[in-house]
């Protein structure tokens, strides 16, 4: 999954071409170019991840500058939370001064865009899903995601299940259980949110109290297969959710991919945008990523990493200065030699 698919573009007049529905404009052009009488070359076909839809600039899951949907739906809560934080900081600044120790402890925020904190990332992602449900704009949904038609447990759901919004704790508990059991990473949680918003954009549906579990499950299933080298199999999720069948998981994955138009590509800029938007959401809801004291072991590790970067930089400078000849214009430039200190 995710690998580029090679197409055979040769046309054989003796074998009929299968009839199928064409949804993509660029794909329609490829099929037309295979018809007799077409002289256009189709040797260089674009991969599906490289095809840009007409409205890709307004799609937050594709364009790095488009506003994420969860930020749009939680704008009022974020503004209120940030204003509350500012007022608290102003009251704290006006308080009495306290004497500080001269030997202060160094605190390090280990959550970065490359290695986000797992617990806090899941909290932020589930909070974004909660705002999706709470501030949804419609009740549009698909039968494959309806939990009444496809229950995740033998007990099913109550008749009024779709009337009440789940709270953040319910969403977090469901996602946290899947991530703990499948041993998924924090990066997978961010990709899950990106696929979820891409589904809302492509399929034109909303996350409702009646479908949020299956929508999130499908996004997690797909994100784990795209991100992890050793992905969790569909049958493994049946061990976590005891009452769900493998056939149901396969059907859920197939429909999810069809709704995404099989576009599972995520640019690094889009991933970074979602990460920092989640940090903004965390700050507004007082769920800041924890800063832990810098220990001796972590300091030694950071020193070793910096030493490796210094060695690479010194090697690059040494290679740049090693020239066979120099023009007369550069005679007055002093040449630097790399000193190695033991």
Walk me through this protein's architecture.
This protein is mostly helical and 342 residues long. 48% of the residues lie in helices and 2% in strands. It has eleven helices and two strands, in the order H-H-H-E-H-H-H-H-H-H-H-E-H. A two-stranded antiparallel sheet has the order 1-2. Helix 5 runs parallel beside helix 7 and helix 6 (186-203) crosses helix 7. The longest helix is centred in the C-terminal third of the chain and has 26 residues, at 296-321. It is globular. The two termini are 49 Å apart. Residues 1-42 and 333-342 have low confidence and may be disordered.
List the helices and strands and how they pair.
Elements: H1 25-33, H2 69-73, H3 75-93, E1 107-109, H4 118-134, H5 168-182, H6 186-203, H7 212-227, H8 234-240, H9 246-259, H10 268-284, E2 291-293, H11 296-321
Antiparallel strand pairs: 1-2
Helix pairs in contact: 3-10, 4-5, 4-6, 4-10, 5-7, 6-7, 7-9
Strand order of the largest sheet: 1-2
Distance between the termini: 49 Å
Mean of residue pLDDT values: 77
Instruction: Write down the Rg.
Output: 26 Å
Task: Count the E strands.
Answer: 2
| Unreliable spans | 1-42, 333-342
Summarize the amount of helix as a percent range. 40-55%
Tell me the series of helices and strands, N- to C-terminal: HHHEHHHHHHHEH
The structural class is mainly alpha
Strand content: under 5%
Sheet with most strands:
2 strands, antiparallel
What's the tally of helices? 11
Apparent shape: globular
């Amino acid at each position: 999954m995710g690998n580029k698919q090679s197409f055979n573009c040769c046309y054989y007049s003796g074998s009929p071409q299968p009839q199928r529905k064409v949804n993509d404009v660029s794909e329609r052009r490829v099929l037309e170019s295979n018809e007799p009488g077409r002289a256009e070359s189709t040797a260089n076909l674009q991969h599906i991840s490289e095809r840009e839809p007409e409205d890709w600039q307004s799609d937050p899951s594709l364009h790095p500058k488009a506003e994420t949907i969860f930020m749009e739906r939680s704008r009022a809560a974020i503004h209120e939370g940030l204003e509350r934080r500012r007022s608290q900081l102003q009251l704290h600044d006006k308080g009495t001064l306290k004497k500080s120790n001269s030997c202060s402890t160094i605190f390090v925020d280990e959550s970065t865009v490359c290695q986000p904190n797992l617990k806090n990332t899941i909290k932020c992602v589930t909070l974004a899903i909660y705002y999706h449900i709470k501030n949804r704009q419609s009740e549009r949904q698909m039968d494959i995601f309806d939990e009444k038609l496809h229950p995740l447990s033998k007990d099913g759901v109550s008749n009024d299940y779709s009337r009440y919004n789940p709270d953040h704790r319910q969403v977090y508990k469901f996602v946290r259980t899947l991530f703990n059991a499948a041993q998924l990473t924090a990066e997978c949680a961010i990709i899950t949110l990106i696929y979820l918003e891409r589904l809302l954009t492509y399929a034109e549906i909303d996350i409702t109290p009646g479908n949020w579990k299956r929508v999130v499950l499908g996004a997690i299933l797909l994100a784990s297969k795209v991100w992890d080298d050793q992905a969790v199999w569909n049958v493994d999720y049946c061990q976590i959710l005891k009452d769900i069948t493998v056939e149901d998981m396969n059907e859920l994955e197939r429909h999810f991919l069809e709704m995404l138009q099989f576009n599972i590509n995520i640019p690094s800029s889009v991933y970074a945008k979602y990460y920092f938007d989640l940090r903004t959401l965390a700050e507004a809801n007082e769920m800041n990523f924890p800063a832990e004291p810098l220990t001796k072991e972590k300091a030694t590790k950071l020193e070793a990493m910096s030493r490796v970067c210094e060695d690479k930089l010194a090697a690059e400078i040494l290679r740049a200065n090693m020239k066979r000849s120099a023009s007369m214009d550069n005679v007055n430039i002093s040449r630097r030699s790399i000193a190695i200190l033991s």
